[in-house]
């Protein structure tokens, strides 16, 4: 049976700013000066001002419902109030009905009902909403009933577009995300489904966010779901989505919606790898054909890549006494440009000898400023001051990696570039000391440990498993195939049967 109570309306127009807290993010910053005018003709009115960008992380369904309603709706005569148990069922019927959904009976829910000028509260039978409904009419609807949608009040809506884009991670259908989706649908907000909750992940998400947020990355976007991160993280990702070029294959994150297959070596030096066995045009064609061989076995598009040795480990000290020969960036420029034009990613590999990685990386700053160019640090060839190549395996500290990574991340941010691949070559745990100290927090970088071991399948897989022990969170795994040193060389199908599936595969 439906119970009804008399509603006493006060026909006033008021400005209300919701003051609450969710996951350490103040909603007051989200719902700035939203106007609710109870004497409007419409039963439902959209918010008149866009909210600031806010990431809600793993906030509860109650807090998420409050935040989205505050951002999307200026006023609503009919509002649903659900318990956490009935919230998802209500979410399935309220979006198309244009009715906002609040979850719980907290004081903040009561504040929202007051701000919206609600006259009728819709709830499930047996739900006690007296503490928030006050003297409003209460309409009981069983959201699980087959005809539940038909029993909802008809709503006349102001159809102005809601000034909001709602970013959701479709892979995490939590109750909070379901509630957020229902409220965004009810209010006509733009919903952007992003893999991993990252608006940079695909061309579609980048385009959707650009359309929704316009020119200002600090306004108009709200993200729900733990993968979306904090407000600070979301704002940084949005800044990249709005300004940066896209990577080969689309989107701006290196390993979210693509894998890469590369030829490795140095131009004109066949002994260093297959990349140098033919001219530029033939190398690009060979690499594209190689990547295509992986497509039948991949869950994601496979993008061709060139891993170019830009500084070559040397048996002679050279004029700088660093046992490393630096290839003139001007020599590599045609390779970088041609690869970009062909939709091929490029990684510049450093074999620094007695020089530190950062010093060498800075030599190639203008090439690294290209959106499709990343960096590889080859620790096998990083020597101590008294060492020479081939007498020992080189090693690098986590601190030196962090210094180089920080510079690369700053370059990416300052030049408004898409995320960059940062490869850490390794086949022995000793090659990177204090690996746990590697900083993986910079969203501008996609860091991967590249397993460089060669030999029999058992030896290679043993190295693969060993390198994953104590791997810092945020670092993914990559793989190298050798045509001559492996016995036998893994096929594309065998390579992609490895667990976890490698994100970057190179051939030497």
Describe this structure in words.
- By secondary structure, the chain is α/β, with parallel strands linked by helices.
- The protein has two domains: 13-243, no CATH class; 262-507, TIM Barrel (Alpha-Beta Barrel).
- The protein is 28% helix and 22% strand.
- The protein has helices at 61-72, 87-94, 107-116, 130-133, 175-187, 203-213, 231-243, 280-294, 329-341, 357-363, 365-368, 398-414, 457-467, 492-495, and strands at residues 13-16, 21-22, 25-26, 34-37, 44-46, 54-55, 73-76, 78-82, 101-103, 120-123, 137-140, 165-168, 190-193, 221-224, 259-265, 302-313, 324-326, 345-350, 373-378, 396-397, 420-426, 432-433, 445-451, 476-481, 504-507.
- Strands 15-16-18-19-21-23-24-25 form an eight-stranded parallel β-barrel, surrounded by five helices.
- Helix 13 links the parallel strand 23 and strand 24.
- Helix 1 (61-72) runs parallel beside helix 5 (175-187) and helix 2 packs parallel to helix 5.
- Residues 1-40 have low confidence and may be disordered.
- Keywords: Signal.
- This is Lipoprotein.
- Residues 1-31 form the signal peptide.
- It comes from Brachybacterium nesterenkovii.
């Amino acid at each position: 049976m439906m119970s009804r109570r008399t509603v006493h309306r006060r026909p006033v127009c008021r400005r209300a700013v919701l003051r609450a807290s969710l996951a350490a993010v103040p909603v007051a910053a989200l719902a700035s000066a939203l106007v609710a005018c109870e004497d409007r003709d419409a039963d439902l009115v959209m918010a008149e001002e866009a909210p600031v960008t806010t990431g809600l992380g793993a906030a509860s369904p109650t807090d998420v419902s409050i935040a989205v309603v505050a951002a999307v709706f200026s006023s609503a005569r009919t509002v649903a109030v659900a318990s956490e148990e009935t919230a998802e069922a209500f979410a399935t019927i309220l979006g198309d009905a244009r009715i906002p959904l609040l979850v719980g009976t907290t004081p903040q829910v009561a504040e929202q009902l007051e701000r919206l000028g609600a006259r009728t509260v819709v709830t499930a039978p047996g739900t006690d909403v007296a503490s928030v409904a006050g003297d409003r009419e209460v309409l009981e609807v069983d959201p699980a009933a087959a005809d539940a949608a038909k029993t909802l009040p008809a709503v006349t809506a102001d159809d102005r577009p809601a000034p909001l884009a709602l970013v959701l991670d479709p892979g995490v259908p939590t109750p909070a995300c379901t509630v957020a989706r229902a409220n965004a649908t009810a209010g006509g907000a733009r919903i952007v489904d992003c893999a991993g909750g990252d608006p940079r992940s695909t061309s579609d998400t980048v385009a959707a966010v650009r359309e929704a947020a316009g020119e200002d990355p600090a306004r108009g976007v709200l993200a729900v779901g733990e993968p979306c991160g904090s407000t600070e993280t979301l704002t940084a990702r949005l800044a990249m989505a709005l300004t940066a070029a896209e990577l080969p294959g689309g989107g701006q994150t290196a390993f979210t919606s693509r894998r890469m297959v590369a030829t490795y070596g140095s131009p004109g030096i066949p002994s260093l790898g297959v990349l140098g066995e033919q001219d530029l045009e033939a190398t690009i064609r060979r690499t594209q054909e190689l990547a295509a061989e992986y497509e039948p076995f991949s869950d994601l598009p496979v993008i061709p890549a060139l891993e170019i040795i830009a500084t070559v480990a040397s048996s002679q000290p050279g004029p700088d006494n660093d046992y490393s020969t630096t290839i003139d960036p001007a020599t590599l420029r045609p390779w970088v440009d041609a690869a970009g034009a062909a939709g091929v990613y490029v990684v510049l590999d450093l074999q620094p000898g007695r020089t530190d990685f950062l010093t060498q990386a800075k030599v190639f700053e203008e090439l690294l400023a290209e959106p499709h160019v990343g960096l590889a640090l080859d620790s096998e060839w990083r020597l101590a001051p008294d060492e020479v190549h081939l007498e020992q395996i080189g090693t690098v500290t986590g601190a030196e990696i962090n210094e180089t990574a920080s510079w690369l991340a700053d370059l990416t941010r300052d030049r408004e570039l898409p995320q960059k691949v940062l490869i850490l070559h390794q086949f022995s745990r000793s090659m990177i000391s204090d690996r746990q100290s590697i900083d993986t927090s910079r969203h501008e970088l996609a860091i991967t440990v590249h397993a460089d071991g060669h030999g029999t399948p058992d030896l290679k897989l043993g190295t693969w498993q060993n390198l994953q022990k104590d791997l810092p969170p945020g670092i993914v795994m990559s793989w190298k195939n050798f045509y001559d040193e492996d016995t036998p060389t893994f096929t594309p199908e065998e390579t992609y049967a490895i667990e976890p599936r490698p994100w970057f595969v190179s051939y030497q």
